[in-house]
Amino acid sequence: MTEVRLPARPRVISIAAGALFASAVVLLVVWIAWPEQVVSNGGQVFFIMLWTVLAYVTFRGAGWVRYAIVAILLVTLWGFANAVSPLEAIAELAPWEVLCRVLQASALALLCLPQAHRWFRAVAALDKDG
Question: Could you tell me what percent of the chain has a pLDDT over 70?
Fold first, then answer.
């Protein structure tokens, strides 16, 4: 099985994948160093794995990752909207949770730039041809 060579990866893709992976690392560090801050160990492990996988597939050229991030962030917003007091729910976020959301939203913004879109399209064309 031969590996398909990806087109030159734009810097925004590498930065976005790094931001997603950094989000997973933040979650891992909090889980290990401050376990009392973690509400659900299973949930924490799930999101550590999720953001790690999303970082990897971003780096490998899976354009669908943008839609996955949008879906995850929309579910987060839905949770705030359904809280008894949405502003209080947002205000009660721990600094590490805010950092993760900023990293994730920043990655999404980078992945929606034209050069990222062109690269994802080029990778998809290679997959279709190969």
Answer: 95
The mean pLDDT of the chain is 91
Instruction: Write the pLDDT tens digit of every residue in 58-115.
Output: 999 999 999 999 999 999 889 888 888 888 878 888 899 999 999 999 999 999 999 9
- Rg over CA atoms, the chain: 16
**Is residue 125 predicted with pLDDT exceeding 80?**
yes
The three-point CA angle 130-49-38 to 5° equals 165
Cβ neighbours of residue 48 under 8 Å, at least 6 residues apart?
24, 27, 28, 31
Rounded to whole angstroms, the Cα distance separating 95 from 14 reads 25
Residues 92, 89: Cα–Cα separation, whole Å: 5
Count CA atoms closer than 13 A to 78's CA, side-chain side.
Answer: 6
Rounded to 5 degrees, φ, ψ at 63 are -65, -25
**Tokens 């590490």 sit on residue:** 96
Length of the chain (residues): 130
C-alpha closest to that of 30 among 99, 126, 107: 99
